[in-house]
Specification:
alpha/beta, seven-stranded mixed β-sheet, 24% helix, 21% strand
Length: 159
C-alpha cells in the first residue's frame, strides 16, 4: 500500500459527496488549500467528536480552505451523518477504499480483530494550492485525534 508523504504531489481522486455530487480533488488545484480528514466510520463517537470540533472551529483553518471528510461509508450514510450533525463541510464516500489506500490511510486485514480491511485510518492531509502534501498524519489508533492545532498552524501559514 502506498503512503502519501509530505513533499509529494497529492494523489488525485473523484468521489461522491454527501450531496451525491461528484467531487474532484483536481478542482481545488491552483485555487485553494485543502484539508482531507479520513475517518473510520460515520456515527461513531471519536469520529463525531473530531468532525464536530473541526466544523465548530472551521474559521480557524485558514480563509478559503477546502475541508472534506472521507470514510468508506456510502454516500447515503454520509448524507445523513452530515445532516444530523450539521457539519460545515462535505463528506466524501470512498466506498471501495481506493483513495484511503492511495494515501496510506487504510487498515490492512485486521481492524479490531474482525478482519475488516475496508476501513479508513484516522488521518489528516493538508494539500497546498499547488497540489503538494504539506502535512500528513496517519494514526494507527482509531481512538486518537489528529493534531488539530498543528493542522491549523500549517494551513494558516500557507498563502
Amino acid at each position: 500500500m502506498a503512503t502519501a508523504v509530505v513533499g509529494q504531489e497529492a494523489p488525485g481522486f473523484e468521489l461522491y459527496n454527501s450531496e451525491k455530487e461528484l467531487f474532484k480533488l483536481s478542482e481545488a488545484k491552483g485555487k485553494q488549500n485543502t484539508l482531507l480528514l479520513f475517518y473510520p466510520g460515520a456515527f461513531t463517537g471519536v469520529c463525531t467528536t473530531e468532525l464536530n470540533t473541526v466544523s465548530n472551529e472551521i474559521a480557524d483553518y485558514g480563509k478559503g480552505t477546502l475541508i472534506v471528510g472521507i470514510s468508506t461509508d456510502s454516500p447515503f450514510v454520509q448524507s445523513e451523518y452530515k445532516k444530523v450533525n450539521n457539519f460545515g463541510f462535505a463528506l466524501l464516500s470512498d466506498h471501495d477504499a481506493k483513495v484511503c489506500a492511495a494515501y496510506g490511510a487504510k487498515y490492512q486485514n485486521n481492524f479490531t480483530g474482525m478482519n475488516l480491511d475496508r476501513i479508513a485510518k484516522r488521518s489528516a492531509f493538508v494539500i497546498n494550492k499547488e497540489g503538494t502534501i504539506v502535512y500528513a498524519e496517519v494514526l494507527e489508533n482509531a481512538g486518537e485525534l489528529p493534531d488539530l492545532d498543528a493542522i491549523k498552524k500549517v494551513l494558516n501559514g500557507l498563502s
